[in-house]
Specification:
The protein is α/β, with parallel strands linked by helices. 54% of the residues lie in helices and 15% in strands. The protein has 3 domains: 158 residues, 3-Layer(aba) Sandwich (Calcium-transporting ATPase, cytoplasmic domain N), CATH 3.40.1110.10; 133 residues, HAD superfamily/HAD-like (Rossmann fold, 3-Layer(aba) Sandwich); 228 residues, Calcium-transporting ATPase, transmembrane domain, CATH 1.20.1110.10. The chain contains 21 helices and 15 strands. Helix 7 runs parallel beside helix 14, helix 16 packs antiparallel against helix 17 and helix 17 runs parallel beside helix 20.
Length: 528
């Protein structure tokens, strides 16, 4: 009992966490757990500090992996030091057993290290506590001066539970072609136990420690970096080396962290991710993105959202280029054949109404179902990568042909067949205008996915439906309201003509679906 009391007292006093008014521990999670542990044994930190106020300290630093505090007691001064068990043991000359200090032997040291490994293998984070008595207040607080001749008290093991959503997030990472790598200050056995449970690594061979990294030259590390999924007992300077080696291997790297010492590696990664809750200001300032909830799963969500936005930008560009190309080609060929396809005001109307709204609606498109099942795009890929340029070209040509066909049909219905249009045919123009407007709207539905059939997308883009209905109404108003129609130079459209123009416009959907079908089967052959 007395040994456990001493252990809890040392852990609680040698920490910067405290109990709030409600009796809950507040502070850095590891230290808060230790303060809560002492409180559970009936040793609230407030009472401990009243009896032994802190008069000096050597704060924690990730290089020595420990911290020390000096306290004034009734019988003199006592120093408590807690930290990584292997580091603390090196500085212990005695150990506390049965209420007294006995000399530290090699057997005892080996037994303590074995206990440490046993706890670490169960995925526990292990800390050791020690103390040193002084008959006067230590004259300096340099770690090298304080942290020697210590008396070992004991070990504490705590579970740092993995959030339930992390496991799914890591599976999702893998399917999205992202490889999660774990860099931690924890003991190697703890790190391996957690990483194996999460599916980050399969076996302990994929883990490496900071000490191993020191033995490796940069060339060796660059050659072997892809073998490792866990880096344990790591110093801040190692993190930059790890990030640099992954970057040299041709990978885009994202690095997360919260402490001041994470800032250099977050800065050197392609994407630095800071923590919004536990993160220090330094880290948040160098980060490219900050997680408001400090949750790994949020990063994976952000990747999906980024892919969706990039896809939608491409869809809008593809739609606008194909539509505008059809206008340019249509006017060009009509001029070559000696007739006017559309007047400038018609083209302006099409550009403003039937190009603008669907393009905006495509920006609201939900993510495609497989957005997280495909590998990341290459950093060298331009916006036209993946056959987008070819798609724009053939789709522009299809809309041109449909529009020209509509013009000629409209003209022939009026004048009689087998008479090529010449100059200006109001009927032809009216039909061409209706067909081109609607063709572009229908085509915007093709754009919901570059390769997949629009009929296999389970979600609906309500905004796009709205754009379609709105554009159809506006176009019909322009054709049917007499004074607007005459301003545009349109002739009255009979119902058969109106339906024929719409039917021609809808043709763009099955034609593009057929091409997509061929493209998909070709892609399957290529991958096979």
């Amino acid at each position: 009992g007395s040994d456990e009391t001493l252990l809890a007292t040392a852990m609680a006093l040698c920490s910067d966490a405290h109990l709030n008014d409600k009796g809950e521990a507040e502070g850095e999670p590891t230290e808060a757990a230790l303060v809560a542990y002492a409180a559970k044994l009936g040793l609230p930190k407030g009472e401990l500090e009243a009896a032994a106020p802190r008069v000096d300290e050597a704060p924690f630093d990730s290089g020595r992996k420990m911290m020390s505090t000096v306290h004034k007691t009734d019988s003199g001064w006592v120093q408590y030091t807690k930290g990584a068990p292997d580091e603390i043991l090196r500085r212990c000359t005695t150990c506390w057993e049965g209420g007294k200090a006995v000399p530290m032997t090699e057997e005892k040291r080996a037994a303590i290290l074995a206990d440490n490994k046993g706890l670490a293998d169960r995925a526990l984070r292990v800390l050791a506590a020690s103390f040193r008595n002084w008959d006067h207040k230590p004259e300096q607080n340099e770690p090298a001066f304080l942290e020697q001749d210590l008396c070992f008290i004991g070990l504490t093991g705590m579970i740092d539970p993995v959030r339930p959503e992390v496991k799914d997030a890591i599976v999702e990472c893998r399917s999205a072609g992202i490889r999660p790598v774990m860099i931690t200050g924890d003991h190697k056995d703890t790190a391996v136990a957690i990483a194996t449970e999460l599916g980050i690594i399969q076996s302990a061979d994929e883990a490496i420690t900071g000490a191993d990294l020191n033995e490796m030259s940069d060339e060796e590390l660059d050659k072997n970096i892809k073998k490792y999924g866990v880096y344990a007992r790591v110093q801040p300077e190692h993190k930059v080396r790890i990030v640099t080696a992954w970057k040299k291997a041709g990978c885009v790297t994202a690095m997360t962290g919260d402490g001041v010492n994470d800032a250099p590696s977050i800065k050197s990664a392609d994407i630095g991710v800071g923590m919004g809750i536990t993160g220090t200001d330094v880290t948040k300032n160098v980060a490219d993105m900050v997680l408001a909830d400090d949750n790994f799963a949020t990063i994976v969500g952000a990747v999906g959202e980024g892919r969706r936005i990039y896809d939608n930008i491409r869809k809008a560009i593809q739609f606008l280029l194909a539509s505008n190309m059809s206008e340019v080609l249509g006017v060009f060929f009509a001029t070559l054949m000696g007739f006017t396809l559309l007047q400038p005001v018609h083209l302006l109307f099409i550009n403003l109404i039937t190009d603008c709204f669907p393009a905006l609606a495509l920006g609201m498109e939900k993510a495609e179902p497989d957005v997280m099942n495909r590998p990341p795009r290459k950093t060298s890929d331009g916006i036209f990568a993946g056959g987008l340029g070819v798609d724009v070209a053939y789709q522009g040509v299809i809309i041109t042909i449909i529009t020209l066909a509509s013009y000629i049909l409209g003209h022939c219905m009026e004048v009689g067949f087998f008479e090529m249009p010449k100059g200006i045919s109001d009927d032809g123009m009216t039909m061409a205008f209706l067909t081109m407007s609607m063709c572009e709207i229908v085509h915007s539905f093709n754009m919901r996915s570059q390769r997949k059939s629009v009929f296999t997308l389970h979600s609906h883009n309500k905004v796009l439906w709205g754009a379609m209905i709105g554009s159809l109404l506006l176009t019909t108003i322009v054709l049917e309201v007499p004074f607007i129609a005459s301003a545009f130079g349109f002739t009255p459209v009979s119902l058969p003509e109106y339906l024929l123009a719409l039917l021609l416009a809808v043709l763009v959907l099955p034609i593009v679906e057929l091409v997509k079908l061929v493209q998909r089967s070709m892609a399957r052959k290529r991958s096979a």
